[in-house]
Every structure is written in C-alpha cells, then in structure tokens.
Amino acid sequence: MNSISSMNTTTTTTKASPMTETKISARNVQVYYGEKHALRDVSIEIRPRSVTAFIGPSGCGKSTFLRCLNRMNDTIDSCRVEGHILIDGENIYDAKVDPVQLRAKVGMVFQKPNPFPKSIYENVAYGPRIHGLARKKSELDDIVAASLQKAGLWNEVKDRLHESGTGLSGGQQQRLCIARAVAVSPEIILMDEPCSALDPIATAKVEELIHELRTNFTIVIVTHSMQQAARVSQRTAMFHLGLLVEENDTDKMFTNPDDQRTQDYIMGRFG
Ligand SMILES: Nc1ncnc2c1ncn2[C@@H]1O[C@H](COP(=O)(O)OP(=O)(O)OP(=O)(O)O)[C@@H](O)[C@H]1O
Questions:
Q1: Number of structural domains, the chain?
Q2: If you count Cβ atoms within 10 Å of the first and of the last residue's Cβ in the chain, which end, N or C, has fewer?
Q3: In a domain, 6, yes or no
Q4: pTM for this predicted structure
C-alpha cells in the first residue's frame, strides 16, 4: 500500500496557475525500499514544454525519483513513497487516479530499447488501440504514421511497417519506443538513460528528437552524461545520496553551480 495515496491533499489540489508554469510539482517526497531510505525530502517544480535533466552519481536516486512521476514504483512491492506529487495541480497518488491512465499521460522510455516482438505498425498501434483513441482502421493508420514522423523514424520504416520491430537497429528501436510513447498523446515523457545502449550517431538522432519533442511535451531525462544534459536540457537537477542537492538552469549548473557537490561532480571529482 502506497502511503502517499492516503494523505490529505485538500490544500494542494488547486490547479497550477499558468503564471507559475509548473507541470509537475513534487513536495517532500521520500522513497523507501523496505528499510532503505532511497530518496530524502525531494521537492522540485518541473516546467512544461521543456527538458529537465536528472544527473548525479550512480545509486543517488535519479531513476527512483523518475519512476515516482508515473507511479512505476507501484510495481515494486518493497517500495513505499511519501509526500506529494502533483501534475497540473492534481495528486497523482490520489486513490481516484488510475495508474494505467496516468502512464498514458506520463509515458516512459527505458534505458534499453524494448519493442514488443511484433511488427513496427503493431508496436505503435497497441497503445492507441487499448486506449480507444481510434474509431476505425484509417484513424489508427494516421496515428501510427504521425507518431513515427514525430519520432523521426517514418522515412526509414514507411515501406516496412509490417516487419518486426525487433529487426531494427538499436537506435531505430529506441525511436520506435519513443513513437510508441508518443502515440497515446502523452503530456509528459520520462526517459531513463535513453541513449546508454546507443552508438554516437544514434545518440545524436535521439538528442535531436528530444530537442524537437520539447515543443509539445514536457520531458524529464535521467542521464549519466553531463555533456548530454548540457546539450538537451534547459533545467538540470543534481542528486547525491538520495538528496536533491541543486536544481538550476542548465547553463548555470555547468558553469557556476551553487552547490559544492555539483561543482565536484561536474569536475569529475566523484561519480
Ligand atoms: N528495486 C529496488 N529494490 C531495492 N533497492 C533499490 C531498488 N531500486 C533501487 N534501489 C536502491 O535505491 C538507491 C537509488 O537507486 P536508483 O536506481 O534510483 O539510483 P540511480 O541514481 O538511478 O542509479 P544509476 O545511475 O546507477 O542507475 C540505490 O541505493 C539502489 O540500490
């Protein structure tokens, strides 16, 4: 049972004002795996239609926090989340929130490309079909084509839509997974080290895509690469030993950070 869902959120469920430009608001989030206290009192406001990067040394809690944002941690029995996470002002851990619907609104792309063992077409059509987004085949065809276009993959696959998705290169598979996430019209896309299994050319394509996608989506990306964070994000959050130690404009973070731990990490003194 997730203790966050039982909290009284009456004072925190007001809609975010457009003036504040906050898409995701996390307040005092604590995460435990059994006895292990993995995240300590994390609070952050994430802006809409921008890219926020999470950086920090291995084991500091970046992925744990990312998974809190679409309740993927619900699937881990030992995991307990406390605090508040609001999306558009609504507590996503409220009992009335359906995690399946939430994950359509907050899509996820994982470290290792994980297409279904189905055709390219079916990989993208699956989500819209189960969420009832298309009334007829031609509408589904349009969603598949538009999603593959948004993922920058259409030209490479338009003549082989019925071939297996697992037959694509690693970089193409990752863009297929991005197309699959985009197909259900999410508002937020979470990316957990999406380029770590890709070569530099495929990485560059995915980074270019992230740059384009931020016009329409709020993107949160976990990355081990500070160069990647600097290239793709507008805001960066630095985690260390379960704490969010600094969150800042990316330019400032990599030139003149406020926190000594950020300074040490970007100078390669640890991690
Ligand atoms: N399913 C789990 N069960 C128990 N402990 C976990 C689990 N997942 C993560 N942890 C622990 O929580 C802490 C944070 O892990 P997390 O994977 O969030 O860190 P990270 O910063 O994303 O690390 P990395 O960069 O190596 O992926 C670590 O100490 C890790 O061992």
A1: 1
A2: N
A3: no
A4: 0.90
Per-residue pLDDT tens digits for 29-45 = 999 999 999 999 999 99
Residue 2 pLDDT > 90, yes or no?
no
What span, in angstroms and rounded, lies between the C-alpha atoms of 2 and 4? 5
Residue 50 lies in a domain: yes
Residue with CA at minimum distance from ligand 1 atom 23: 59
In angstroms, the CA 38 to CA 65 distance is: 9
Contacts of 40 (CB under 8 A, 6+ apart): 30, 242, 243
Q: Is 61 in the pocket of ligand 1 (CB under 6 A)?
A: yes
Q: Is 33 in the pocket of ligand 1 (CB under 6 A)?
A: yes
Where in the sequence is the domain holding 170, given as residue range(s)?
A: 19-90+98-266
Cβ of 62 below 6 Å from ligand 1: yes
Output the domain CATH number for residue 167. 3.40.50.300
In whole angstroms, what is the distance from residue 216 CA to residue 161 CA?
Answer: 25
What are the CA-CA distances from residue 189 to residues 78, 130, 167, 271 (Å)?
25, 19, 25, 26
